[in-house]
Design brief:
Blueprint (H helix, E strand, L loop, with lengths): L14 E4 L4 E4 L16 E7 L8 H16 L7 E7 L8 E5 L2 E3 L1 H9 L5 H20 L2
Parallel strand pairs: 3-4
Antiparallel strand pairs: 1-2, 3-5, 5-6
Length: 142
């Protein structure tokens, strides 16, 4: 069943983030007044899965597991989250990465984005980790 939540006008005011090298704005006035959001306005979450979490033969399974997990997780918070579950082939890239409106976001920025929807990033990450652990067990037949 589709449920809409109206976003209050006060939640749509622009605010800015400052990082060490640059300043960029995330304009919440671009967010539609109802959910689900357009893909451009959703928080894009890339989760990179380590092959080792799938056991000693994880490298043989990680691609298929990511496809499996993507199908099962894509509906989770899909009104404001776009998921991308991929193998972690480059250890220099973070395990989790956030983007919104074409900008990479740090933890604090993603937390502020989710706060618009009444969510905390820390709770979101715990819920995601728990969900992925359950999916690993399901995939491995446990």
């Amino acid at each position: 069943m589709f449920v809409q939540r109206q976003i209050a006008r006060s939640e749509l005011t622009p605010f800015f983030y400052q990082d060490n090298q640059s300043k960029f704005g995330l304009e919440f006035s671009a967010i539609k007044n109802s959910l689900p959001l357009s893909n451009d306005n959703k928080l894009s979450v890339t989760y990179r899965v380590e092959s080792g979490c799938l056991g000693p033969d994880g490298t043989d399974h990680v691609e298929k597991f990511c496809d499996f997990a993507q199908k099962r997780i894509q509906s989770l918070d899909s009104d404001h989250i776009a998921w991308n579950i991929v193998p972690r082939s480059d250890k220099n890239l973070p395990e989790m990465q956030y983007r919104a409106i074409g900008k990479i976001m740090n933890h604090s920025q993603a937390d502020k984005y989710l706060a618009v929807f009444g969510k905390s990033l820390d709770e979101f990450e715990i819920h995601l980790s728990d969900k992925l652990a359950a999916l690993i067990n399901e995939y491995m037949g446990h």
